[in-house]
Design brief:
By secondary structure, this protein is α/β, with parallel strands linked by helices. 30% of the residues lie in helices and 25% in strands. The chain has one domain (71-274): 3-Layer(aba) Sandwich (Rossmann fold). Strand 5, helix 4 (128-136) and strand 6 form a beta-alpha-beta unit. It has a seven-stranded mixed sheet, with helices on both faces. The protein has helices spanning 59-62, 75-92, 111-116, 128-136, 148-156, 176-186, 200-206, 222-231, 263-274, and strands at 15-21, 37-44, 51-53, 99-103, 120-125, 140-143, 161-167, 187-198, 218-219, 234-242, 248-255.
Length: 282
C-alpha cells in the first residue's frame, strides 16, 4: 500500500482492528443477510506522516442515495454553521454577486445560511437523498464526488468561488490529491477555503479509537497536510481550535502567497512536533 498523499510505500500497520462492518450500513430487521466485514488497519506514512487506513471499501458503498446522516438533525451543529456563515459573510463581504461552494454539503445546513443572505450557494454531495433536502432550502446542489473533474465542470459554467467550505469531509476522501486539486482550480484568485476536521492528536491523546472506521480514510494533522496543500499551490494561512467532534480545528487556506499567515499555524505545527507527530518514534 502506498500513501494516499505522497505515494510513499507504507510499512506495517500501527493498529489492526480486524474485520469490521461498514458504519451506518443499517439493515432492515427482516434482512437475514450478514454484514459484510472489511479489514480496518491504520498506517502512518514514513515520509509525510499522514495516518490512514487501507482503501478497501469503495466510496460509492459509503456515500449514496440512502445515506443515514443528515446534518440539520443536530441543533448544536446548526448553530455552529450559522455562526460560521455570519462571520464569513461579514469578514469577506459576501452578498449578491458573490459565490460560495460547500463540498460535502449534505442537507444544506451550512450553504442555506449563505443562500438566505443572497450569496449564490452551491453544494456538492454524492448523497442524493441529502441533496434533495438541500435543494429545497435554496441551495444549488450538484450530486457527485468533488474533485478536479467536477471543479472543471463548474468552472466551465462560470463558477469562481469566493469561499469554499468543507466541514468534516477531508478525512472521507480516498484520493486526496484529486480532491485538493479541485479546490485549487475552483477557488477565486483572492478566495478563501476552510476545512474543519478532528485532529489525530486528539485521537491519540484521548484514545478515540471509535473514530477509526471505514468512512475515515485519513486522520489529519497540519504536519501531514502542509505538503499536500503545497503540492497544489495552496497555503495554510490560519487555524482555530474548535470543540466539535471531540477536538477539531478550522483551517483557512488561500492560493500560495496571497495574504498574511497567522502565527497560529506554526504554533500548532510546533505542538504536533512536540507530540511526536512529525516522526515514527512517538
Amino acid at each position: 500500500m502506498n500513501c494516499r498523499s505522497c505515494d510513499a510505500v507504507l510499512g506495517e500497520p500501527v493498529l489492526d482492528l480486524g474485520l469490521m462492518p461498514i458504519s451506518n450500513a443499517f439493515r432492515r430487521i427482516d434482512d437475514p443477510t450478514p454484514d459484510a466485514r472489511y479489514p480496518l488497519r491504520l498506517y502512518v506514512c514514513p515520509k509525510c506522516f499522514l495516518a490512514q487506513i487501507e482503501d478497501v471499501v469503495p466510496r460509492e458503498a459509503l456515500f449514496h442515495g440512502d445515506y443515514a446522516y443528515l446534518s440539520s438533525a443536530s441543533s448544536s451543529w446548526r448553530e455552529h454553521v450559522e455562526a460560521y456563515a455570519a462571520r464569513m459573510i461579514a469578514e469577506l463581504g459576501l452578498g449578491r454577486g458573490r459565490t460560495m461552494v460547500e463540498v460535502g454539503s449534505n442537507d444544506g445546513a451550512l450553504a442555506a445560511a449563505f443562500a438566505r443572505a443572497g450569496v449564490r450557494a452551491i453544494g456538492v454531495d454524492p448523497a442524493t437523498n441529502a441533496a434533495e433536502v438541500a435543494a429545497d432550502k435554496g441551495v444549488e446542489t450538484v450530486v457527485g464526488f468533488f474533485g478536479t473533474e467536477l471543479a472543471e465542470r463548474l468552472q466551465g459554467q462560470g463558477v469562481s468561488a469566493d469561499l469554499i467550505a468543507a466541514n468534516n469531509v477531508l478525512a472521507h476522501v480516498p484520493d486526496l490529491n484529486d480532491f485538493v486539486a479541485g479546490f485549487a482550480r475552483l477557488l477565486a484568485p483572492d478566495g478563501v477555503a476552510t476545512f474543519e476536521f478532528p485532529l489525530v492528536s486528539a485521537l491519540i491523546a484521548e484514545g478515540q479509537y471509535d473514530t477509526i472506521y471505514h468512512e475515515h480514510y485519513s486522520y489529519l494533522s497540519l504536519t501531514a497536510l502542509r505538503p499536500l496543500f503545497a503540492r497544489h499551490g495552496l497555503e495554510m494561512t490560519d487555524v482555530e481550535r474548535l470543540a466539535t467532534h471531540g477536538g477539531s480545528v478550522r483551517l483557512f487556506l488561500r492560493h500560495a502567497g496571497v495574504g498574511p499567515v497567522s502565527p497560529a499555524v506554526a504554533a500548532l505545527e510546533a505542538e504536533e512536533r512536540a507530540a511526536g507527530l512529525a516522526g515514527l518514534d512517538g
